[in-house]
Design brief:
The protein has 350 residues and is of the alpha/beta class. It has 2 domains: 19-36 and 258-348, Aspartate Aminotransferase, domain 1; 44-255, Type I PLP-dependent aspartate aminotransferase-like (Major domain) (Aspartate Aminotransferase, domain 2, 3-Layer(aba) Sandwich). It is 34% helix and 14% strand. The protein has helices spanning 38-45, 61-70, 83-95, 112-118, 161-169, 224-234, 244-255, 257-280, 302-311, 335-348, and strands at 25-26, 78-81, 102-105, 123-126, 146-149, 176-179, 200-205, 218-222, 283-284, 292-297, 314-315, 317-318, 328-331. Strands 2-8-7-6-5 form a 5-stranded mixed beta sheet. A 4-stranded antiparallel beta sheet has the order 9-10-13-12, with helices on one face. A two-stranded parallel ribbon has the order 1-11. The structure holds 4'-deoxy-4'-aminopyridoxal-5'-phosphate (PMP). The site of 4'-deoxy-4'-aminopyridoxal-5'-phosphate (PMP) has 12 residues, from helix 3.
């Protein structure tokens, strides 16, 4: 027997590429094209690096406080992690602990099956319908937990709160996680439902709408019992997850609500304009409520367009996966970046 037989083997998640080129247009990992709130830069410049000598606050108290205040919940209903990937991973470990399979859509965030494999959680995917919609009835079968993004990624489609509530209400014996990474671009959050359903966990991130992917800040809100169990698992794993600068700068971002709305409004306006521009070029897409479009072209294969764009240092995302290999996920950048993209496509598709 070889030691390799006892290795926890897993096929890792493949993140979008992170090229470092000066002149590129990066529309492949749904980052925000605008900087974080101005106060964040101000505070970063003044940061007392003497504090880095000490361990950070393992409870991320100031950030939990700021989020509780902002979302009108109690502090013991908030859990903070190093990006929502950290929160989601911890939630999988904590709540998906049954022999029954957890359920999630077949076309969704491609990290879910990786965490399930990593933690040895059985899972079953439920096919979205032909319009990329979740079929509620799929989530009425016996299961060990449920997770889906709303709006979904990479389709960009938002499901109504009625549908979310129906799924949560029909599954009182398991935890239902709603991944709201993109909710701030026109979605309707399930947060108001956490008071009503103790099995509902709502996960959000600072990586997209708050323009702080580089600081790695995510959080979730739910019933205080859920949050307690999450903290128990987190403190059994690594107490000091979030670094001090992220904690301090995260609080500053939450404070500037005007800037937050200004930024998300700008992205939504660009997205709506892009829907018209891309449709004129022969693309079609589900009606995105996120900061990206999931587009397919009437005649040119997605992979060809992907490669041509890449040659021109315009990066978008292409997934070589069943059902979606003829689609491109295009992050909404600045108006100027999107105009360059459209000009390139106009010429290329001629
Ligand atoms: N959920 C979804 C649906 C996502 O697309 C992403 C971004 N890759 C995440 C969660 C994780 O984002 P982060 O860890 O940066 O918060």
């Amino acid at each position: 027997m070889s030691w390799e037989e006892n290795v926890r083997k897993v096929v890792p998640y493949v993140a979008g590429e992170q090229p470092k080129k000066e002149k590129m247009i990066k529309l492949n990992t749904n980052e925000c094209p605008y900087p974080p709130a101005p106060g964040v830069a101000r505070l970063a410049a003044q940061m007392d690096c003497g504090s880095l000598r000490l361990y950070p606050d393992s409870n991320t108290t100031p950030l939990v406080h700021a989020l509780a205040e902002y979302y009108h919940v109690d502090e013991d209903q908030v859990f903070v992690g190093v990006g929502s990937d950290d929160v989601l991973s911890m939630a999988f470990l904590t709540f998906f602990n049954s022999d029954k399979p957890i359920l999630f859509p077949d076309v969704t965030y491609s990290f879910y099956d990786v965490w399930a494999d990593l933690y040895r959680i059985p899972y079953r995917t439920c096919a979205l319908d032909a319009d990329w919609r979740i079929r509620t009835e799929d989530y009425l079968q016996e299961n060990g937990g449920i997770i889906f993004p709303n709006p979904n990624a990479p389709t960009g489609l938002l499901e109504g709160l009625d549908k979310v509530e129906e799924i949560v209400a029909a599954n009182p014996d398991v935890v239902v996680i709603v991944d709201e990474a993109y909710v701030d671009f026109g979605g309707e959050s399930a947060l108001p439902l956490v008071e009503k359903y103790e099995n509902l966990l709502v996960v959000q991130t600072f990586s997209k709408s708050r323009a702080m992917a580089g600081l790695r800040i995510g959080f979730c809100i739910g019933n205080r019992k859920l949050i307690k169990y999450l903290n128990d698992a987190k403190f059994s794993f690594n107490s000091y997850t979030m670094n001090y600068p992220s904690q301090v700068l995260g609080v500053e971002a939450v404070r500037d609500d005007a800037y937050f709305h200004e930024t998300t409004d700008k992205i939504v306006a660009t997205r709506e304009r892009m829907k018209k521009e891309l449709a004129r070029l022969g693309f079609s897409f589900p009606d995105s409520k996120t900061n990206f479009l999931f587009a397919t072209h009437e005649s040119v294969p997605a992979e060809e367009i992907f490669r041509a764009l890449r040659e021109a240092d315009i990066y978008v995302r292409h997934f070589d996966r069943p059902r979606i290999s003829n689609y491109l996920r295009i992050t909404i950048g600045t108006d100027e970046q999107m105009d360059t993209l459209v000009a390139f496509l106009k010429d290329y598709l001629k």
